[in-house]
Structure formats: C-alpha cells, structure tokens
Design brief:
about 260 residues; TIP41-like; Phosphatase_reg/MetRdx; TIP41-like protein; alpha+beta; five-stranded antiparallel beta sheet; single chain
Length: about 260
C-alpha cells in the first residue's frame, strides 16, 4: 500500500510517496534501465518531489540514485570473505561480478521541469551561500514531515548500505536531508549527507528563489576509528544517525561542498 503526504506552501507543492518493497518485475526493469547486474535486495519505488510554481521540480528516487552508482563505478571493496563472495557472484553475473557491491551513490537529487513547462531545468552552481540553520531551529509548526527509504542492502551479511531521506516543510522554508550510509564490517564506514534548503521569504529582485544544497562526505576505515578510540563494534553503528554521531565525534576528515539552484519565476 502506498502512503502519500502532500502540502503546498510558498510557491512549492511538496509530495512524498512511501511504497512497499518493489516486486521482481519492477526490480528487473530498474536493472535494465540503469544497466546494472543487480540492485539492492530491498528496493523501493518511494519518491519525494518538490514542484515549484515556475515548473521546476526537484525529485528523489531510487532509480536515478542507482544510475549515479553505476556512473561512479567505485572499485569493489575487499572483505574477509571476498573470494567466496566473488566466486558465488561470478557464477551469477560473470565478468560483471567486479561491480561496486556497496551501492555507493553520489546522488544529489534530480532537477526536472514539469510536462507543461517548456523551459530548461536550471543547473547547480558552486556558491558561498549557507543553509539558514537558525531558521530550521525556530519553533514554527511543521506542516509536513516524512521519512523514506529508497534502497537498502545487507551486503551478503557483510554490513549494510542504506539510502534514505527526511523532509520537513515549515511556514517559511522546507528542508531535505538525503543520506547514503555504508558499514562494511571490519573494513570501513562511509557517510554521504546532502542537505537541501529553500527559504520562501528570500526572493531576489527578479523574483527568483534559491535552493541551497550542502554535501558532506565522511569515510573512515575500521583501523582509523580504532586508532582514535572510537567504537568498532558493528552494533555501535545500527543506523545513519548513530554512524553520523560516531564519525563526527571521531573528528576525521570531511569534504564539504555547497551549491545553489536558482529558479527564475
């Protein structure tokens, strides 16, 4: 059963759809569409779309995220059971068994235009703008909140990979947190967090609105975490929230990039 949440505010129509795990026919369709040998065992057709009155839309879905995973093409991570894993997957996928089985994606959403708009989608540009975190902490009522899982894998019992998001709409702004997090037991922790923010009250002299996208990427090997005194028991990393907390406390390197999407009226 699909559950839909929707709210209109500040020139935006925000709609989320939460679905059960996709059926085999849909999974095979996605594999064909993204040209992948396989997909995460838990794949969802859940999606979030934020449509602006100008006709520009920002969409989040598993298929586009997996398309970015294929394009990134990271090398396969070696695990203790790598030989056994590779042998079993070669039998199924042949030469394609060397794919990145962690499903790591740099996905940052899909910018489109609605079918009745003849304009070209705007593009993300590097910016010095920042997300207004003070506005996010104001005690304004939450008009809409949802959490979606786009895909998840237990990595053949070697850990977990998960892509999900949270969306919040308030009277003066909306905020989306998109997270890919990975735990390969005994090897590494990886966390890609992408935050999206739009302030309805900020419009330039041309009437354009701006969406700010902040991407933070953290990655630590098990050995590096251990050397910093951080916990290395897989049970200490049950979800993205806990992984983020541990990685932040460990004080390791972080890569931060901020972009802006300017939407003309």
């Amino acid at each position: 059963m699909t559950t839909v949440a929707r709210v209109a505010r500040g020139g935006w129509d925000v709609e989320s759809a939460s679905t059960p795990i996709a059926k085999r026919a849909r999974i095979e369709q996605v594999e064909t569409n993204v040209d992948a040998p396989t997909t995460p065992e838990m794949l969802f057709d859940s999606a979030l779309e934020l449509r602006h009155e100008s006709g520009v839309a920002l969409r989040f879905e598993a298929e586009d995220a997996l398309r970015e995973w294929v394009k990134l093409g990271l090398p396969a991570i070696e695990v203790a059971a790598a030989k056994t894993w590779r042998r079993s997957h070669v039998e199924r996928f042949g030469d394609a068994a060397e794919y990145d089985w962690t499903f790591t994606t740099p996905y940052g959403g899909t910018v489109t235009t609605t079918s009745d708009s003849n304009r070209q989608p705007p593009t993300w540009e590097l910016t010095d703008r920042r997300i207004d975190r003070a506005m996010l902490t104001e005690r304004d009522p939450i008009l809409m909140y949802d959490e979606l899982t786009l895909y998840e894998s237990e990595l053949d019992d070697n850990g977990v990979a998960h892509l999900g998001l949270k969306v919040r709409v308030m009277p003066k702004c909306w905020f989306v947190l998109l997270r890919f997090w990975l735990r390969v037991d005994g090897v590494l922790i990886r966390l890609f967090e992408t935050r999206f923010f739009c302030d309805f009250t900020e419009v330039d002299r041309t009437g354009a609105v701006v969406v700010v996208r902040e991407t933070q990427r953290r990655e630590e090997t098990w050995d590096a975490l251990h050397a910093r005194g951080a916990p290395c028991d897989p049970t200490q990393f049950p979800d993205a929230d806990q992984a983020a907390s541990v990685l932040l406390a460990a004080g390791g390197p972080v890569d931060i990039v901020t972009h802006a999407l300017t939407i003309a009226p």
